[in-house]
Write a structure and sequence with these properties.
The structure holds two protein chains of two kinds. By secondary structure, chain A is an alpha/beta fold. Chain A contains eleven helices and 27 strands. In chain A, the strands form nine sheets. A five-stranded parallel β-sheet of chain A has the order 5-2-1-9-23. A four-stranded parallel β-sheet of chain A has the order 13-12-11-17, with helices on one face. In chain A, strands 24, 25, 26 and 27 form a four-stranded antiparallel β-sheet that branches. In chain A, helix 2 crosses helix 11. Chain A is globular and about 65 Å long. Chain B has a single domain, classed as Cytochrome c-like domain (Cytochrome Bc1 Complex, Chain D, domain 2, Orthogonal Bundle). The chains are: A alpha/beta, B mainly alpha. At the A-B interface, helix 2, helix 10, strand 24, strand 25 and helix 11 of A face helix 2 and helix 3 of B.
């Protein structure tokens, strides 16, 4: 029954696509066709909704997502710190289905045939598309930390850098830790997902220790030379709020781990922790490389900033953390949402025979909690520059909070409510 | 003799002009960059504490944005964000939101 429905749906999609290409050259027509979106995070859910909304239902959209519900990475550090629950960061895909008519399929895409314009699903079967959007997030380069390169090690030494079961598991490790213990978080060399995220997590774990396990310590092992985001604001929070609790170590890249003793192996040193939280280096989600898309540094997808389309593979658009970032552009959920809108507008133009908008703009806002209530932000605006063909940060715009404050703590939670609705409701 | 280079220069300008022609949905696209915080089409989630922009008269939104830009209106973040957009872009954004329900 389900299969029949899917087949009929695909037939309609393919026919609409053929119509679109037949009449495409005339230009200015109504967009139609079938867009398959892989990955229902901040980028994928946004592009799916906006394609349906802006085409007024003219474009068929299938979203393929491996998880049953959306779980947000932003705000998940509050779950790890114990002031929010998983329920607070979980949102259903029902709104996308019932309100916007997005077909949501819980499955995984195992291969892309860009020449045939079809994807292969893990549960079996192929699905054809007129345009494909990959919003696959990141996958971890466990081979860079040999001791972590197996499932048993990964279930003991957590990253919790994708929200979900690991968020709960890391919280449990912290709850189980004795007072007087040490929590260490490692940060890979930039670029990595959510530049201020590790520093925020250190604050929120320290906040938990301060109130519940006051003899305990937090150590940040940063592979980078210095704090990567909001440095003056974070270092002030560490000095004011967590003196004697948080210790920051720069140039401390984790090269390996000794799993049995919870030890991080650095270049010239070792560090043993009671709770060891390793964020390994990461790259575009595996499907990007498997699809044969051109990668930069063998890690991030090279895209055209007018359309988010792969520079190597026509018809395949890539969003979010998986792309090679434009100058100063962070890998963030907010930015992935903006990529989704840029791509939706470009895809609808392309499906109706028009050029993409020649002047796209994206912007980022990122709030970090330094305790349960006080927040600091960083913001930036990026305008397309025809000379360099990338979106460039606007000089003199954007910036950071003057100081940590409770007002922005409320705004940060309001931001979450609005962006989740903007993607999913 | 100088006519030819001048003509080709004019042609280039014409071509560049065509390539730069504004997208008919530019206002919609720009306004969508605000939706992360202010809600889809400017309809902020009720009780979220963030301002809805849908249906707000254009002049009112533009004045607010100008005051953020100049620093006349104190803000936690909008003074930094408003500076990232040109006055023409802010005009398109305010026009789009004014027309939303």
């Amino acid at each position: 029954m389900m299969l029949m429905k899917r087949r009929d749906f695909l037939k309609v999609g393919a026919a609409a696509g053929a119509m679109a290409s037949l009449y495409g050259c005339a230009g200015g027509g109504k967009a139609s066709g079938h867009v398959v979106v892989v990955g229902g995070g901040y980028g994928g859910a946004t592009v799916a909704k906006y394609l349906r909304m802006w085409s007024e239902g003219g474009v068929q959209v299938t979203l393929i997502e491996r998880n049953p519900t959306f779980i947000s990475c932003p705000i998940s550090n509050l779950v790890i710190g114990g002031t929010k629950t998983m329920e607070d960061i979980t949102v259903s895909y029902d709104g996308l289905k019932s309100k916007w008519g997005v077909r949501v399929i819980q499955d995984d895409v195992v291969a892309v045939d860009a020449a045939k314009r079809s994807v292969k699903l893990a549960k079996g079967g192929d699905m054809s598309y007129d345009r494909l959007v990959l919003s696959p997030g990141v996958d971890f380069m466990f081979d860079q930390i040999p001791g972590l390169n197996n499932a048993a090690a990964q279930s003991k030494i957590l990253h919790a850098w994708k929200a979900g079961p690991q968020t709960i598991a890391l919280r449990k490790q912290l709850e189980d830790m004795k007072d007087g213990g040490t929590y260490a978080i490692s940060i890979p060399k930039a670029p990595y997902r959510c530049p201020p995220g590790p520093y925020e997590r250190a604050c929120l774990v320290a906040n938990y220790f301060k109130q519940n396990k006051p003899k305990s310590k937090v150590v940040i092992l940063d592979a980078n030379e210095d704090v990567q985001s909001k440095k003056p604001l974070f270092t002030k929070a560490w000095a004011d709020l967590y003196k004697g609790i948080i210790e920051y170590r720069n140039n401390s890249e984790v090269k390996d781990v000794e799993v049995s003793t919870n030890t991080a192996v650095l270049e010239f040193d070792k560090f043993k922790a009671d709770v060891l939280n390793i964020v390994p280096p990461h790259r575009a989600g595996d499907i990007a490389a498997k699809s044969g898309l051109k990668l930069i540094n063998n890690r991030w997808v090279d895209i055209n900033w007018l359309s988010m389309e792969s520079t190597s593979t026509p018809g395949v658009h890539v969003l979010g953390d998986a792309v090679f970032p434009a100058p100063t552009m962070p890998k963030s959920g907010h930015m992935a949402n903006q990529h989704g809108k840029l791509a939706a507008a470009a895809i609808l133009n392309l499906l109706s025979g028009q050029e993409p908008n020649p002047a796209p703009v994206v912007m980022n806002t990122c709030y970090s909690f330094v305790d349960a209530k006080n927040v600091i932000h960083v913001a930036s605006i990026h305008q397309y520059d025809a000379a360099t063909k990338v979106v460039q940060p606007v000089k003199g715009a954007g910036g950071v909070s003057a100081a940590r404050n409770e007002l922005e703590g409320k705004v940060a939670l309001g931001w979450a409510k609005n962006i989740w609705a903007d993607m999913l409701a | 003799m100088k006519l030819l280079p001048m003509l080709s220069a004019l042609c280039l300008i014409a071509v560049a002009g065509t390539a730069q022609a504004a997208d008919p949905n530019l206002g919609r696209n720009l306004a969508a960059t605000c939706a992360n915080c202010h809600g889809t089409n400017g309809n902020a989630v009720k009780g979220s504490g963030l301002d809805s922009l849908a249906g707000v008269p254009k002049d009112k939104t533009l004045q607010k944005l100008a005051d953020f830009k100049s620093g006349d209106k104190p803000a936690s973040i909008m003074h930094q964000i408003a500076k990232g957009y040109t006055d023409e872009q802010l005009d398109l954004i305010a026009t789009y939101f004014a027309a939303q329900k």
